[in-house]
Amino acid sequence: MSDDFKRLAAERAAEDVKPGMKLGIGTGSTAEHFVRALGARVRAGLDVVGVPTSERTRELAEAEGIKLATLEELPELDLTIDGADEIDPALTLVKGGGGALLREKIVAAASLSMIVIADESKLVECLGAFPLPIEVNPFGLGATTKAVEACFARNGLQGKLVLRGGAEHPFVTDGGHYILDAHLGRIADAARLAHDLVAIPGVVEHGLFLGLAAKAYVAGKQGVTVVEPAK
Ligand SMILES: O=C[C@H](O)[C@H](O)[C@H](O)COP(=O)(O)O
């Protein structure tokens, strides 16, 4: 069911793509539905160029026959369409469940607009039930972990930090980094936490997306709803 909702939201977003657009293309199971829907439009004659946010998305988009470029070649994009792990009423997001948060954030920030696509299970009143991914440099992992824990304490947060994949076989991102998943439960002040996390030298990026999403297409039993940031 949830996968059908993801597809519905993705297909709605694909209708917003206009000829000539330079598109950021997200990562994850919902974004994959978008890539397939976009592929169908491209095969029907739509001329667009996409910048993928992961190697996984690049491979699928190529297989779908979508024309691709790098962000070096196209540093300014019209629109990014991507999934999310959590969406709050201000359209602040948690992203990175699939490990692509760094490229996703760089691409979204280089876009004039970002549309989020999701099934309704991603809508939350308060972020934090989904573990917050924090991308870190492998160098000095122990020191960075301690600094992140201290940052949580200063923010009044408690929770376990888990190295994704485990110490034996850590998950490695497309950028060659590791991910610490922070099980926080509740993030009351996402802006303050985001600000404090990026100030830690070993932290490359985190999965909090603030002020990037213009709207979300959220699908459920009632169809697709357009969610805009609460004022
Ligand atoms: O790193 C992955 C991304 O941020 C995904 O967009 C996010 O995890 C949502 O994925 P899905 O659409 O598979 O739920």
Automatic annotation (TrEMBL):
Keywords: Isomerase. It is an enzyme of class 5 (isomerase). GO terms for biological process: pentose-phosphate shunt, non-oxidative branch. Pfam families: Rib_5-P_isom_A (PF06026). The active site is at residue 104. It catalyses: aldehydo-D-ribose 5-phosphate = D-ribulose 5-phosphate. GO terms for molecular function: ribose-5-phosphate isomerase activity. Pathway: Carbohydrate degradation; pentose phosphate pathway; D-ribose 5-phosphate from D-ribulose 5-phosphate (non-oxidative stage): step 1/1. Substrate binds at residues 27-30, 82-85, 95-98, 122. Its EC number is 5.3.1.6. Homodimer. Catalyzes the reversible conversion of ribose-5-phosphate to ribulose 5-phosphate. NCBIfam families: PRK00702.1 (NF001924), rpiA (TIGR00021). Belongs to the ribose 5-phosphate isomerase family. HAMAP family: Rib_5P_isom_A. This is Ribose-5-phosphate isomerase A.
